[in-house]
Protein 1
Amino acid sequence: MIIHLKKEIGSAKAQEVAADINAFLIEEPNRYVLVSSSGQKSIDEKYTAIIEESFVFDNDMQLSSRAYRPETREVKIGNVTIGGNTGNTLVIAGPCSVESEEQIQESSALLKRLNLTTLRGGCYKPRTSPYSFQGLGLEGLKLLKKMKVEHGLSIITEVRDATHVQEVIEYSDVIQIGAKAMYDQGILRACAKTRKPVLIKRGFGTTLQEFVQCAEFVLSGGNDNVILCERGLRTFETKTRFTLDLCGVAYLKEYTNCPVVLDPSHAMGHAYGVPDLTRACTAMGVDGLLIEVHPNPKVAKSDASQQLNHEEFETLLSTLNPLAKAVHRKII
Ligand code: PEP
Ligand code: MN
């Protein structure tokens, strides 16, 4: 249940009511917002005078639901905004991993040349094998920061576990919570305490309900800026790396108020399929696309098979605008 309390009651009273009904308390400029379990369907009559409005739900998809907040929330990333009425489809691009200064400078130069604003690159990589490249860690974050300062790019990078979450929050403009990390409550709770945008990737065996409930962990802590990212599910199929759940994306767009980003690179797992899949994703009318691109994919230290080279990426990008336009979107 979500309950709006009148602002004039003051913080102490709002805290008292929150404790009484075991609810999260979010302080908004014009009201206090209490969020308790969806199992709660009513509140004691003694509080009637201080309640502005209340909302009852049949499951714990509450703050993230369109039933509560009909418009897609706006999320600001550097100088650009997605969601709301912007109609923007933000292209987030860059290598799977930050590998060296030379590499990330080349990636940054590509983005600048193509008028893109948001650079991705992992520094704490959640690898399947402990013997694979694990990322440059803090050294990589410092390189990303350098790209932000030198080129004015916004930075999105992933947090692998709760031990370095504060570091990632400090260095990034958008915190990426990966498909394997999305169940880590240490990460989710830390991200709930910042106001920086958080992009949560759906686990490859995660239901839509579980996925959206991860977003609720962040939203209920008072961080409004949650973006959902579909990146493919594990199915019986082995010819492609994962199976991109576009039906799930239709569901998220219909029932949740969080901006939705699609990641065709991890879903496909092979560069040959990424351009077509990106075009299909664009036609879904989503708020963003996350695409892996590397100056020389053959030597990439992670996800080598799926990363586009610069030429392939540029060609792909040049095909997206008419598709975006057809669904009343603009590629930014
Ligand atoms: C990535 O973005 O490089 C990544 C590891 O993604 P995922 O968490 O979706 O596997
Ligand atoms: Mn990757």
Protein 2
Amino acid sequence: MAASSTGREAFASRAGFILAAAGSAVGLGNMWRFPYQASEGGGAAFVLLYVVLTLVLGIPLMLAEFGVGRRAQLAPIGALRNLAGRAWAPLGYVFVLAGLMILSYYSVIAGWTVRYGFEAAFTGFTAAPADHFGQVAAGADAAAFHVAFMAVTILIVVGGVKGGIERASLLLMPMLFVIVIGLALWAATLDGAGAGYVKYLKPELDELMNPDVWRAAASQAFFSLSLGMGGMLTFASYLKRDQNLPESATVVAFTDFGVAFVAGLLVFPVIYSFALQGAVGASTVGALFIALPSAFQAMGEMGRIVGVFFFFVLAVGALTSAISLLEVVTASVMDEFGMSRRRAAVIMGAAITVIGIAPAMDTDALGLMDKIAGEFLLILGGFALALLAGWKLRSEVRDELLAGASPFWQRQVPRILTVLRWVVPPIVAFVLIFSLRETAAAIIAFFSG
Ligand code: PHE
């Protein structure tokens, strides 16, 4: 049964929690999806829409998770059962399922980044990056890197909240910030930088009338902020009541946006200075694993150095996100079955590793899992969380958001609750319908050919 709150693990420092939450948020989504979606979805208009959605949906929903998690001092399944009643416990299982599915393919992509980092360091990039990516993206090699990446993730989660997650975040996140900013500054010195910025940010306001751009932006916000699967909820369950939750959520959300935005300032100049826009093609991974490696290859020695840093940052971002995905699953099993951390992390981590063999062997399976779990399940979870925090647990969440908050942030709490009650549910319901359509179409396409 549920562990008692007195013996529960806890973060040792305020910064430790914030960097762990930022570590969950900042990941492949920032560098793999954001720049590409912005350039496709209206440039600066998309960025603006994204910031608005971060404020209106992202921060309130992150606070719904923070509030419920810290209140319950339990992982999602137990938290929902204890606070909201048995009928809500299944939502906890949806969260665990989402975490499990996302990590199983996320780790495969993370494995690619590790592989490319090694290539940059030891062999150099090939002259035919598209063929090369085709050869290594799926198959035994991809599976091997996925297994290795999962092993590291499991090790850190076994280390616990303070000795594993917090320590890794305090070490890795500052490093990531410095390298990303350094790389973007370097990219600004490239010849085609201007054309790259234009492609990335040229505002196309009519895109804002397109509901699909809204769906894409909202779904990007959920994925990038790690919302809708109980990750933020689980991390907050390791907090004492002195943490300023509204302020923490704001810092985490803007850190995440900042890294995504700067990633675009890095990726586009590199691609445009080598006229590789064709290689980006229709796929989001094309930019990272095909266009950038060809640019790095064309730069010779310098490209290899930059490549090492670039893929190192991707792998680090992926690792701190993977930790949070595994932690949701691990903490749920610990709380539900009274299992030790070590056993829960190893057993569930091994199960996820095995499931991940499927996306490691087949990139179409990977894409489908991303649609189902990375998009649809997160939006579904976010919708339920908004109803929970805005209606059913309103007073509990209000208490929790007030506790530890400074007077300024306490004054914002009623506004946040109003947004959770009246603004978030209708917007997310709208997005959910479009996402359901998209996901259904993707499932049909997958099985019909
Ligand atoms: N936010 C992570 C990223 O942008 C991915 C993630 C999604 C992590 C959901 C945890 C939960 O890469």
